[in-house]
Automatic annotation (TrEMBL):
Pfam families: Pept_S41_N, Peptidase_S41. One of its GO terms (biological process) is proteolysis. Residues 178-394 form the Tail specific protease domain. This is Peptidase S41. It comes from Flavobacterium panici. It comes from the Bacteria.
Protein backbone atom coordinates (compact mmCIF):
# COMPACT_ATOMS: atom_id res chain seq x y z
CA UNK A 1 0.00 0.00 0.00
CA UNK A 2 2.93 2.34 0.65
CA UNK A 3 3.94 2.30 -3.04
CA UNK A 4 0.51 2.82 -4.62
CA UNK A 5 0.35 6.61 -4.37
CA UNK A 6 3.75 7.26 -6.00
CA UNK A 7 2.91 4.87 -8.83
CA UNK A 8 -0.43 6.58 -9.48
CA UNK A 9 1.20 10.02 -9.37
CA UNK A 10 3.92 8.92 -11.78
CA UNK A 11 1.30 7.51 -14.17
CA UNK A 12 -0.67 10.76 -14.02
CA UNK A 13 2.41 12.90 -14.75
CA UNK A 14 3.50 10.61 -17.59
CA UNK A 15 0.02 10.80 -19.17
CA UNK A 16 -0.01 14.61 -18.82
CA UNK A 17 3.42 14.92 -20.44
CA UNK A 18 2.28 12.61 -23.23
CA UNK A 19 -0.72 14.88 -23.96
CA UNK A 20 1.48 17.98 -23.94
CA UNK A 21 4.00 16.40 -26.31
CA UNK A 22 1.18 15.47 -28.67
CA UNK A 23 -0.17 19.02 -28.64
CA UNK A 24 3.28 20.53 -29.44
CA UNK A 25 4.08 18.52 -32.56
CA UNK A 26 5.78 20.38 -35.40
CA UNK A 27 3.39 19.08 -38.03
CA UNK A 28 2.14 22.01 -40.19
CA UNK A 29 -1.50 23.01 -39.98
CA UNK A 30 -3.37 22.40 -43.23
CA UNK A 31 -6.24 24.54 -44.49
CA UNK A 32 -9.00 23.81 -46.93
CA UNK A 33 -8.16 24.94 -50.44
CA UNK A 34 -9.82 28.16 -51.69
CA UNK A 35 -10.21 29.56 -48.19
CA UNK A 36 -8.59 32.79 -47.02
CA UNK A 37 -6.61 30.79 -44.49
CA UNK A 38 -5.20 28.58 -47.25
CA UNK A 39 -4.01 31.60 -49.24
CA UNK A 40 -2.80 33.69 -46.32
CA UNK A 41 -0.81 30.88 -44.74
CA UNK A 42 1.05 30.57 -48.06
CA UNK A 43 1.59 34.34 -48.20
CA UNK A 44 2.97 34.36 -44.68
CA UNK A 45 5.48 31.59 -45.38
CA UNK A 46 6.70 33.21 -48.61
CA UNK A 47 7.15 36.59 -46.92
CA UNK A 48 9.00 35.05 -43.96
CA UNK A 49 11.44 33.56 -46.45
CA UNK A 50 11.92 36.28 -49.06
CA UNK A 51 10.76 39.65 -47.69
CA UNK A 52 13.55 42.16 -47.08
CA UNK A 53 12.14 42.96 -43.63
CA UNK A 54 11.12 39.40 -42.78
CA UNK A 55 12.38 39.62 -39.20
CA UNK A 56 9.79 42.33 -38.50
CA UNK A 57 6.98 39.82 -39.20
CA UNK A 58 6.39 38.37 -35.74
CA UNK A 59 3.26 36.24 -36.16
CA UNK A 60 0.76 35.07 -38.72
CA UNK A 61 -1.98 37.29 -37.40
CA UNK A 62 -5.56 36.93 -38.58
CA UNK A 63 -5.54 34.41 -41.44
CA UNK A 64 -9.27 34.87 -42.02
CA UNK A 65 -8.77 38.32 -43.58
CA UNK A 66 -9.26 38.98 -47.27
CA UNK A 67 -5.86 38.07 -48.88
CA UNK A 68 -5.18 41.54 -50.25
CA UNK A 69 -5.82 43.09 -46.84
CA UNK A 70 -3.87 40.34 -45.08
CA UNK A 71 -0.84 40.98 -47.30
CA UNK A 72 -0.80 44.61 -46.19
CA UNK A 73 -0.54 43.52 -42.55
CA UNK A 74 2.79 41.85 -43.33
CA UNK A 75 4.42 45.00 -44.72
CA UNK A 76 6.70 47.48 -43.06
CA UNK A 77 5.15 50.94 -42.76
CA UNK A 78 7.80 52.48 -45.04
CA UNK A 79 7.29 49.86 -47.74
CA UNK A 80 4.88 51.39 -50.26
CA UNK A 81 6.11 49.25 -53.16
CA UNK A 82 5.19 45.64 -52.34
CA UNK A 83 1.78 44.36 -53.29
CA UNK A 84 -0.20 41.24 -54.18
CA UNK A 85 -2.51 40.64 -57.13
CA UNK A 86 -4.75 37.88 -58.38
CA UNK A 87 -4.77 37.56 -62.21
CA UNK A 88 -8.48 36.69 -62.24
CA UNK A 89 -9.45 39.59 -59.98
CA UNK A 90 -8.85 42.93 -61.76
CA UNK A 91 -9.80 44.88 -58.63
CA UNK A 92 -6.58 43.65 -56.95
CA UNK A 93 -4.29 45.29 -59.54
CA UNK A 94 -2.78 48.74 -58.92
CA UNK A 95 -4.64 51.44 -60.78
CA UNK A 96 -3.32 54.49 -62.60
CA UNK A 97 -4.64 56.90 -65.20
CA UNK A 98 -1.77 55.87 -67.41
CA UNK A 99 -2.55 52.15 -67.37
CA UNK A 100 -6.32 52.65 -67.70
CA UNK A 101 -6.58 55.58 -70.10
CA UNK A 102 -3.05 56.37 -71.29
CA UNK A 103 -2.25 59.76 -69.78
CA UNK A 104 -0.78 61.52 -66.74
CA UNK A 105 -2.09 64.71 -65.14
CA UNK A 106 -1.09 67.28 -62.53
CA UNK A 107 -3.00 70.22 -61.06
CA UNK A 108 -2.34 73.97 -60.94
CA UNK A 109 -3.91 77.23 -59.84
CA UNK A 110 -3.77 80.15 -62.28
CA UNK A 111 -5.44 83.54 -61.90
CA UNK A 112 -7.91 82.26 -59.29
CA UNK A 113 -8.95 79.19 -61.33
CA UNK A 114 -7.95 75.54 -60.99
CA UNK A 115 -6.90 73.21 -63.79
CA UNK A 116 -5.68 69.72 -64.46
CA UNK A 117 -2.69 69.81 -66.82
CA UNK A 118 -2.31 66.93 -69.27
CA UNK A 119 1.38 66.09 -68.82
CA UNK A 120 1.89 63.01 -70.93
CA UNK A 121 -0.20 61.06 -73.43
CA UNK A 122 0.79 57.59 -74.65
CA UNK A 123 0.71 56.89 -78.36
CA UNK A 124 -2.20 54.80 -79.63
CA UNK A 125 -3.88 55.00 -76.20
CA UNK A 126 -7.57 55.66 -75.44
CA UNK A 127 -6.57 59.20 -74.39
CA UNK A 128 -4.58 59.90 -77.56
CA UNK A 129 -7.18 58.38 -79.86
CA UNK A 130 -9.88 60.58 -78.32
CA UNK A 131 -7.98 63.84 -78.71
CA UNK A 132 -6.11 64.41 -75.47
CA UNK A 133 -2.64 65.89 -75.80
CA UNK A 134 0.09 67.28 -73.59
CA UNK A 135 -0.54 70.85 -72.47
CA UNK A 136 -4.34 70.78 -72.55
CA UNK A 137 -6.01 72.07 -69.38
CA UNK A 138 -8.90 70.21 -67.75
CA UNK A 139 -11.56 72.56 -66.36
CA UNK A 140 -14.32 70.04 -65.52
CA UNK A 141 -14.33 66.34 -64.58
CA UNK A 142 -17.66 64.54 -65.02
CA UNK A 143 -19.35 67.92 -65.32
CA UNK A 144 -17.91 69.26 -62.06
CA UNK A 145 -15.70 72.35 -62.20
CA UNK A 146 -12.29 71.96 -60.60
CA UNK A 147 -11.86 73.89 -57.36
CA UNK A 148 -9.39 73.95 -54.51
CA UNK A 149 -11.60 71.85 -52.25
CA UNK A 150 -12.48 69.14 -54.78
CA UNK A 151 -9.63 68.58 -57.25
CA UNK A 152 -8.00 65.83 -55.17
CA UNK A 153 -11.28 63.91 -54.73
CA UNK A 154 -12.08 64.31 -58.43
CA UNK A 155 -8.65 62.96 -59.27
CA UNK A 156 -9.20 59.90 -57.09
CA UNK A 157 -12.60 59.36 -58.71
CA UNK A 158 -10.88 59.25 -62.10
CA UNK A 159 -8.65 56.44 -60.84
CA UNK A 160 -11.74 54.40 -59.98
CA UNK A 161 -13.74 55.13 -63.15
CA UNK A 162 -13.80 53.13 -66.37
CA UNK A 163 -14.96 56.10 -68.44
CA UNK A 164 -14.01 59.76 -68.19
CA UNK A 165 -15.84 62.85 -69.41
CA UNK A 166 -13.45 65.78 -69.39
CA UNK A 167 -13.89 69.37 -70.46
CA UNK A 168 -10.59 70.73 -71.72
CA UNK A 169 -9.22 73.97 -73.14
CA UNK A 170 -5.97 74.95 -74.85
CA UNK A 171 -3.74 77.81 -73.76
CA UNK A 172 -0.93 79.82 -75.34
CA UNK A 173 0.75 83.05 -74.27
CA UNK A 174 -0.26 84.65 -77.57
CA UNK A 175 -3.95 83.75 -77.75
CA UNK A 176 -4.85 82.84 -74.16
CA UNK A 177 -7.56 80.23 -73.61
CA UNK A 178 -9.17 78.70 -76.68
CA UNK A 179 -10.75 75.61 -78.22
CA UNK A 180 -12.94 74.38 -75.32
CA UNK A 181 -14.31 70.89 -75.90
CA UNK A 182 -15.56 67.82 -74.09
CA UNK A 183 -13.58 64.60 -74.43
CA UNK A 184 -14.94 61.18 -73.45
CA UNK A 185 -12.40 58.41 -72.86
CA UNK A 186 -13.15 54.74 -72.25
CA UNK A 187 -10.75 52.51 -70.33
CA UNK A 188 -8.62 50.46 -72.72
CA UNK A 189 -5.25 48.99 -73.54
CA UNK A 190 -2.09 50.74 -74.65
CA UNK A 191 0.75 48.77 -76.19
CA UNK A 192 4.50 49.28 -76.70
CA UNK A 193 5.55 52.88 -77.10
CA UNK A 194 7.90 54.49 -79.61
CA UNK A 195 11.08 56.17 -78.35
CA UNK A 196 11.33 59.65 -79.89
CA UNK A 197 14.79 61.10 -80.41
CA UNK A 198 16.33 64.01 -82.28
CA UNK A 199 19.44 66.14 -82.66
CA UNK A 200 19.21 69.74 -81.42
CA UNK A 201 21.82 72.23 -82.54
CA UNK A 202 22.41 74.91 -79.93
CA UNK A 203 25.29 77.41 -80.20
CA UNK A 204 27.18 75.12 -82.61
CA UNK A 205 26.77 72.17 -80.23
CA UNK A 206 25.00 69.01 -81.40
CA UNK A 207 22.84 67.66 -78.59
CA UNK A 208 21.02 64.35 -78.67
CA UNK A 209 17.57 64.30 -77.05
CA UNK A 210 15.99 60.93 -76.21
CA UNK A 211 12.69 60.42 -74.37
CA UNK A 212 12.07 56.90 -73.02
CA UNK A 213 8.57 56.24 -71.62
CA UNK A 214 9.29 52.75 -70.25
CA UNK A 215 12.00 50.08 -70.17
CA UNK A 216 10.45 47.20 -72.07
CA UNK A 217 11.96 43.75 -72.60
CA UNK A 218 13.97 43.51 -75.80
CA UNK A 219 14.70 47.22 -76.31
CA UNK A 220 18.47 46.76 -76.58
CA UNK A 221 18.36 46.42 -80.36
CA UNK A 222 16.36 49.63 -80.63
CA UNK A 223 18.84 51.50 -78.43
CA UNK A 224 21.67 50.17 -80.56
CA UNK A 225 20.18 51.48 -83.80
CA UNK A 226 19.17 54.80 -82.23
CA UNK A 227 22.56 55.59 -80.76
CA UNK A 228 24.44 54.45 -83.83
CA UNK A 229 22.50 57.14 -85.69
CA UNK A 230 23.10 59.77 -82.99
CA UNK A 231 26.80 58.87 -82.98
CA UNK A 232 26.96 59.21 -86.77
CA UNK A 233 25.56 62.73 -86.41
CA UNK A 234 28.46 63.61 -84.08
CA UNK A 235 26.52 64.59 -80.97
CA UNK A 236 28.71 65.76 -78.10
CA UNK A 237 26.01 66.10 -75.43
CA UNK A 238 22.98 64.02 -74.49
CA UNK A 239 19.70 64.87 -72.75
CA UNK A 240 17.81 61.78 -71.55
CA UNK A 241 14.17 62.43 -70.63
CA UNK A 242 12.98 59.98 -67.95
CA UNK A 243 10.48 62.22 -66.17
CA UNK A 244 7.51 59.91 -67.01
CA UNK A 245 9.41 56.61 -66.93
CA UNK A 246 8.23 54.44 -64.04
CA UNK A 247 10.78 51.70 -64.64
CA UNK A 248 10.64 48.32 -66.35
CA UNK A 249 13.03 45.60 -67.38
CA UNK A 250 16.43 45.81 -65.68
CA UNK A 251 18.29 44.32 -68.67
CA UNK A 252 16.80 47.01 -70.90
CA UNK A 253 17.97 49.72 -68.49
CA UNK A 254 21.37 48.02 -68.37
CA UNK A 255 21.64 48.02 -72.17
CA UNK A 256 21.10 51.78 -72.21
CA UNK A 257 23.61 52.26 -69.40
CA UNK A 258 26.27 50.29 -71.30
CA UNK A 259 25.88 52.66 -74.26
CA UNK A 260 26.06 55.76 -72.06
CA UNK A 261 28.74 54.94 -69.50
CA UNK A 262 32.30 56.08 -70.11
CA UNK A 263 35.26 53.67 -70.24
CA UNK A 264 33.55 50.61 -68.79
CA UNK A 265 34.40 46.92 -69.16
CA UNK A 266 31.98 44.01 -69.32
CA UNK A 267 32.90 42.75 -65.84
CA UNK A 268 32.69 46.14 -64.11
CA UNK A 269 30.21 46.08 -61.23
CA UNK A 270 26.87 47.70 -62.10
CA UNK A 271 24.31 46.65 -59.46
CA UNK A 272 24.55 45.41 -55.89
CA UNK A 273 21.46 43.64 -54.53
CA UNK A 274 21.32 43.24 -50.74
CA UNK A 275 18.67 40.98 -49.23
CA UNK A 276 17.83 39.29 -45.95
CA UNK A 277 19.70 36.35 -44.41
CA UNK A 278 18.00 33.96 -46.83
CA UNK A 279 18.46 35.95 -50.02
CA UNK A 280 21.94 37.24 -49.23
CA UNK A 281 23.74 39.64 -51.53
CA UNK A 282 24.01 39.49 -55.32
CA UNK A 283 26.49 41.50 -57.38
CA UNK A 284 25.91 41.92 -61.10
CA UNK A 285 28.35 43.28 -63.65
CA UNK A 286 27.17 45.17 -66.72
CA UNK A 287 27.42 41.98 -68.78
CA UNK A 288 25.58 39.83 -66.22
CA UNK A 289 22.75 42.33 -65.75
CA UNK A 290 22.38 42.59 -69.53
CA UNK A 291 22.16 38.82 -70.00
CA UNK A 292 19.51 38.45 -67.29
CA UNK A 293 16.83 39.13 -69.91
CA UNK A 294 18.61 40.13 -73.12
CA UNK A 295 20.47 37.75 -75.41
CA UNK A 296 20.11 39.28 -78.88
CA UNK A 297 22.60 42.13 -78.41
CA UNK A 298 26.08 41.80 -76.95
CA UNK A 299 27.95 44.05 -74.55
CA UNK A 300 30.55 44.83 -77.23
CA UNK A 301 27.92 45.84 -79.79
CA UNK A 302 26.36 48.27 -77.32
CA UNK A 303 29.75 49.71 -76.36
CA UNK A 304 30.50 50.42 -80.00
CA UNK A 305 27.43 52.68 -80.11
CA UNK A 306 28.79 54.91 -77.30
CA UNK A 307 28.53 58.46 -78.69
CA UNK A 308 31.68 59.76 -77.03
CA UNK A 309 29.99 61.67 -74.20
CA UNK A 310 31.37 61.84 -70.67
CA UNK A 311 28.26 63.22 -69.01
CA UNK A 312 24.49 62.86 -69.36
CA UNK A 313 21.69 65.29 -68.52
CA UNK A 314 18.68 63.41 -67.13
CA UNK A 315 15.28 65.09 -66.92
CA UNK A 316 13.37 63.68 -63.94
CA UNK A 317 10.37 64.17 -61.68
CA UNK A 318 7.86 62.58 -59.32
CA UNK A 319 7.08 59.84 -61.84
CA UNK A 320 10.72 58.85 -62.41
CA UNK A 321 11.03 55.53 -60.59
CA UNK A 322 12.56 52.09 -60.29
CA UNK A 323 14.79 51.30 -63.31
CA UNK A 324 14.99 55.01 -64.17
CA UNK A 325 16.32 55.80 -60.71
CA UNK A 326 18.68 52.85 -61.04
CA UNK A 327 20.21 54.47 -64.13
CA UNK A 328 20.64 57.79 -62.32
CA UNK A 329 22.27 56.22 -59.27
CA UNK A 330 24.29 53.46 -60.91
CA UNK A 331 25.84 55.50 -63.72
CA UNK A 332 27.38 57.92 -61.22
CA UNK A 333 30.51 55.83 -60.54
CA UNK A 334 31.29 55.86 -64.28
CA UNK A 335 30.27 59.28 -65.59
CA UNK A 336 28.88 62.66 -64.59
CA UNK A 337 25.10 62.56 -64.19
CA UNK A 338 23.35 65.93 -64.10
CA UNK A 339 19.70 65.65 -63.04
CA UNK A 340 17.23 68.41 -63.85
CA UNK A 341 13.64 68.64 -62.60
CA UNK A 342 12.03 67.50 -59.38
CA UNK A 343 12.79 64.83 -56.78
CA UNK A 344 12.23 61.31 -58.09
CA UNK A 345 9.75 58.77 -56.70
CA UNK A 346 12.20 56.84 -54.49
CA UNK A 347 12.02 53.16 -55.40
CA UNK A 348 15.30 51.60 -54.32
CA UNK A 349 14.15 47.99 -54.01
CA UNK A 350 14.04 44.98 -56.32
CA UNK A 351 12.74 41.44 -56.33
CA UNK A 352 10.94 38.82 -58.35
CA UNK A 353 7.30 37.71 -58.58
CA UNK A 354 6.28 34.80 -56.34
CA UNK A 355 3.41 32.77 -57.78
CA UNK A 356 1.06 30.49 -55.88
CA UNK A 357 1.22 27.53 -58.26
CA UNK A 358 0.11 24.83 -55.83
CA UNK A 359 -2.88 24.05 -58.04
CA UNK A 360 -1.66 23.57 -61.63
CA UNK A 361 -5.24 23.87 -62.94
CA UNK A 362 -6.01 27.22 -61.35
CA UNK A 363 -4.14 30.52 -61.29
CA UNK A 364 -3.29 31.76 -57.83
CA UNK A 365 -2.10 34.93 -56.17
CA UNK A 366 1.12 36.63 -57.24
CA UNK A 367 3.26 38.45 -54.70
CA UNK A 368 5.56 41.33 -55.58
CA UNK A 369 7.49 41.83 -52.33
CA UNK A 370 10.53 44.02 -51.79
CA UNK A 371 13.37 41.51 -51.59
CA UNK A 372 16.57 43.46 -52.26
CA UNK A 373 17.89 46.95 -51.62
CA UNK A 374 19.78 48.44 -54.57
CA UNK A 375 23.24 50.00 -54.55
CA UNK A 376 25.76 51.11 -57.13
CA UNK A 377 29.41 50.10 -57.50
CA UNK A 378 30.39 52.56 -54.74
CA UNK A 379 27.67 51.16 -52.46
CA UNK A 380 25.62 54.33 -52.83
CA UNK A 381 21.85 53.94 -52.57
CA UNK A 382 19.21 54.41 -49.87
CA UNK A 383 17.12 56.81 -51.94
CA UNK A 384 13.72 55.65 -50.69
CA UNK A 385 12.81 59.32 -50.16
CA UNK A 386 13.69 60.10 -53.79
CA UNK A 387 16.78 61.41 -55.57
CA UNK A 388 17.18 65.16 -55.36
CA UNK A 389 17.99 66.76 -58.72
CA UNK A 390 21.12 68.84 -59.12
CA UNK A 391 19.07 71.55 -60.83
CA UNK A 392 15.64 71.92 -59.22
CA UNK A 393 13.08 72.96 -61.80
CA UNK A 394 9.30 72.55 -61.88
CA UNK A 395 8.14 71.91 -65.45
CA UNK A 396 4.87 73.71 -64.69
CA UNK A 397 6.14 77.29 -64.69
CA UNK A 398 3.48 78.76 -66.94
CA UNK A 399 -0.02 77.66 -67.99
CA UNK A 400 1.42 77.08 -71.47
CA UNK A 401 3.07 73.66 -71.48
CA UNK A 402 5.11 72.80 -74.57
CA UNK A 403 5.46 69.39 -76.21
CA UNK A 404 8.29 67.14 -75.08
CA UNK A 405 11.33 67.77 -77.24
CA UNK A 406 10.36 71.40 -77.94
CA UNK A 407 13.35 73.52 -76.98
CA UNK A 408 10.98 75.98 -75.24
CA UNK A 409 9.79 73.20 -72.91
CA UNK A 410 10.87 74.09 -69.37
CA UNK A 411 13.11 71.15 -68.42
CA UNK A 412 14.70 70.80 -71.84
CA UNK A 413 15.33 74.55 -71.90
CA UNK A 414 17.00 74.18 -68.50
CA UNK A 415 19.30 71.48 -69.89
CA UNK A 416 20.15 73.54 -72.99
CA UNK A 417 20.96 76.53 -70.79
CA UNK A 418 23.28 74.41 -68.64
CA UNK A 419 25.03 72.97 -71.68
CA UNK A 420 25.57 76.39 -73.27
CA UNK A 421 26.54 78.09 -70.03
CA UNK A 422 23.56 80.40 -70.32
CA UNK A 423 22.78 81.74 -66.85
CA UNK A 424 19.45 83.27 -67.87
CA UNK A 425 16.73 82.03 -65.58
CA UNK A 426 13.55 80.37 -66.77
CA UNK A 427 10.56 82.72 -66.82
CA UNK A 428 9.09 83.61 -63.46
CA UNK A 429 6.43 81.14 -62.33
CA UNK A 430 2.87 82.35 -62.83
CA UNK A 431 1.12 79.13 -61.75
CA UNK A 432 0.95 77.32 -58.43
CA UNK A 433 1.40 73.56 -58.47
CA UNK A 434 -1.12 71.72 -56.30
CA UNK A 435 -0.22 68.60 -54.30
CA UNK A 436 -2.00 65.27 -54.59
CA UNK A 437 -2.67 62.87 -51.74
CA UNK A 438 -1.66 60.01 -54.02
CA UNK A 439 0.24 60.24 -57.28
CA UNK A 440 -1.00 57.87 -59.95
CA UNK A 441 2.02 56.52 -61.77
CA UNK A 442 2.71 53.37 -63.67
CA UNK A 443 5.61 52.29 -61.52
CA UNK A 444 6.67 48.76 -62.29
CA UNK A 445 5.96 46.24 -59.54
CA UNK A 446 9.67 45.60 -59.04
CA UNK A 447 12.97 45.65 -60.77
CA UNK A 448 13.37 41.97 -61.40
CA UNK A 449 16.42 39.94 -60.53
CA UNK A 450 16.26 36.32 -61.69
CA UNK A 451 16.18 34.11 -58.57
Amino acid sequence: MKNCLPIKLFSFFFFTLFLISCENTDEPVTYEENTNEYVNDWMYNQMKRYYLWNNAIKSQGNLALDPKEYFKTLLQSEDIYSYAIHPEKPETSPKSLRSKFGFDVSFIAFEGKYYGVILYVLEDSPAKNNGLQRGQLITHIEGTELKLDNYDNLYNSMLADTQLDLKVVSYSAQSGFSNPKTVSVLQGFTFLQPIPYQVIENNNTKIGYVSIPHFDVGQAQLYLQMFQELKSKSITELVLDLRYNGGGDVSSATALSIILASNIKADDLFIKFEGNQNGGNVDQSFATALKSNESSVSFDALRNAHPGINKVYILCGKRTASASELIINNLKPYMEVITIGEKTFGKDVAGFPIVDDRNPDKRGWILYPSIYKLFNARHEGNYSKGINPEIVLNELQQPEVFALGNRSETLLQGALNRISGNTNKIKTETVQSLPLSKISTDIDPLLQIIP
